[in-house]
Amino acid sequence: MEITEVRVQLVKNKDDRLKAFCSITLDHEFVVRDIKVIEGTGGYFVAMPSRKISDHCEKCGGKNHLRARYCNDCGALLRENRAKKNPKGRIKLHADIAHPINLECRQRVLKGVVAAFREELERSRKPGYQPPELDDLDDEDIPEVI
What we know:
Number of strands: 8
Distance between the termini: 30 Å
Low-confidence stretches: none
Oligomer: single chain
Strand order of the largest sheet: 1-2-3-4
Number of helices: 1
Structural class: alpha+beta
Strand content: 25-35%
Radius of gyration: 19 Å
């Protein structure tokens, strides 16, 4: 697998730890969007796209995030401690959508994304900088599934 393209969209809030959103293209064929570049104490790291974990209301079956106290649909009070804890005792609130399954792949993604982020950061300091669009696919480009 080869990372054939990395697109970086810088975040405007300079005080935030979140520095950019990225998309990577693998082998000119597969795109992973919503990768985040975050500034940590040891430098930049990459957070893969994830979704919030949710559960369903016992009363109406409506879908709610685990931190919700009341049901989004019927307003019923939700049970506390609905979320399962990991072995460290922390509540898991997000699940990865896409992620590397071994250290070598994770390092390749980190290296490629951080290098592209630094290049985009340098470009952004030049006059006339225009940020790239991450979502440039038109609906016409995607074949309709029957």
